[in-house]
């Protein structure tokens, strides 16, 4: 991002957790800058929604994997509990 700003002629002032502070390049048009910010905002919202969906899906997958692992662990620790008694096939 900094390289892009510098390539556009902007002067970066500071970078911190709030964002990048910079002086726009000479001759920058505020209307065009606002339009670019608006366009990026829509893309940011789409990306955020995608990431929320991805995290939800991965959490569900990990929950299933964990449940299966715990079931296998329980069976390995107590093999007699996982065996079913043989069905009585003899007729009286």
Class from helix and strand fractions: mainly alpha
Helix and strand element order: HEEHH
Q: How would a textbook summarize the main sheet?
A: 2 strands, antiparallel
Biggest sheet: strand arrangement: 1-2
Shape by Cα distribution: rod-shaped
Tally of separate domains? 1
- Total helix count? 3
Task: List low-confidence stretches.
Answer: none
What is the overall pLDDT average? Answer: 85
Helix % is 55-70%
Got a strand count?
2
Cα-atom radius of gyration: 29 Å
**What is the subunit organization of this protein?**
single chain
Cα distance spanning the termini:
83 Å
What portion of the residues fall into strands of 2 or more residues?
5-15%
Overview of the structural elements:
The longest helix is centred in the middle third of the chain and has 48 residues, at 30-77. This protein has a two-stranded antiparallel ribbon with strand order 1-2. It has three helices and two strands, in the order αββαα. It has helices at 2-7, 30-77, 79-82; strands spanning 11-16, 19-23. The chain has one domain (2-75). With 92 residues, the protein is mainly α.
Fill in the keyword field for this structure.
single chain, 92 residues, mainly alpha
Question: Briefly, what is this?
Answer:
Helix content is 63%, strand content 12%.
Task: Give the secondary structure arrangement, pairings included.
Layout: H1 2-7, E1 11-16, E2 19-23, H2 30-77, H3 79-82
Antiparallel strand pairs: 1-2
């Amino acid at each position: 991002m900094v390289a892009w700003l510098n390539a556009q002629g902007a002067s970066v002032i500071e970078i911190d957790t709030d964002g990048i502070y910079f002086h726009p390049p000479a001759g920058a048009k505020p209307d065009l800058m606002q339009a670019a910010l608006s366009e990026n905002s829509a893309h940011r919202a789409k990306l955020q929604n995608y990431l929320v969906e991805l995290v939800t899906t991965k959490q569900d997958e990990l929950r299933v994997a964990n449940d299966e692992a715990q079931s296998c662990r329980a069976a390995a620790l107590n093999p007699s509990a996982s065996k079913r008694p043989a069905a009585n096939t003899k007729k009286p």
